[in-house]
Amino acid sequence: MAYPARMSEALPAGQVRCLACIRRCRIPPGKRGWCRTRENRDGQLYSLIYGRVASMSLNPIEKKPVFHFLPGSRWLSLGSLGCNFRCPGCQNWELAHADLDRELEHAPYISPAELIRLALERRAVGLSWTFNEPAIWIEYILDTLPLAREAGLFTNIVTNGTLTPEAVDALGPYLDIYRTDIKGFLARTFKALAHLPHYEGIFAAAERARHRWGMHVEVVTNIIPGLNDDEETLQGIGQWLATGLGPDTPWHLTRFYPAYIFQDRPATPLATLLKAYKIARGQGLNFVYLGNVPGHELENTYCPRCRALLIRREIFEVLANRLQAGCCPECGQPIPGRWI
Fold this sequence. Notes:
Layout: E1 3-4, E2 8-10, E3 16-18, E4 26-27, E5 38-41, E6 44-47, E7 55-60, E8 74-79, H1 93-96, H2 100-103, H3 112-121, E9 126-129, H4 138-150, E10 154-159, H5 165-171, E11 177-181, H6 187-194, H7 200-212, E12 216-223, H8 231-245, E13 251-255, H9 270-282, E14 288-291, E15 301-302, E16 309-314, E17 317-321
């Protein structure tokens, strides 16, 4: 079922421009955008995946990963098909790189109202649009957000960060958490991963979400050997985080595992992750985490003032939470986030 795409503008000769992501695809009649999910039909842009849910599960918020918003809570997490990137090491390539014409029939339609009902039935505290890029089915998210707010549910997107300012502003009045990937800091990295020539809007979108709309923002960098593990990249991202989003922004440095086309690349060495951690802390960032390293002490949250252990984790589970009214029990330091 095709659905009219609101995030678009009409152009001459029956063309349309998609406004959902920073590619801003100019789409001729009868053609689709880069993500292959938004199609120009007689001068009107349509979403081909509105409400078509290819994967859905109840997940801990730590799986996003988000560590500073209701630790241990469970969220109804869902994704569709397609993506506006073509990452060769994609961990969810079965969804993101799916042949839409062949696979869409296996993604059942779930209306916004039904999605709310399912979340409440499963006792989720919120909804998370994840697994593939949320920007490409933004109309579905926009129709669901007010219903979620009315039902007392929190909301989260797990994004590659390519939302346009128009898209961020449309989400802004309702969205609680903006969990964004920052895959690199150099043009060559974004070209290699996503064929994306202009990436600066990724940083601007995160800043807009944080400063204009007051969203809770956390950042993930999946560190891939030989691609974005160099010191220039890590220093650049760390400096931007400290100045653009603020030193209390959680930064998750996650281990890459071979996947999809990048089967021949090794998993990220622990030494590389620790080097990145040292760089991040050197930039003044207070909450830096290692991901995909089960049982490592840097999965935990520590007080930035006295270094007391505050939240102990293992993989996606919270084993202990010592925060008292959002503060360190040892020195009283307030810890940014939402804790109750």
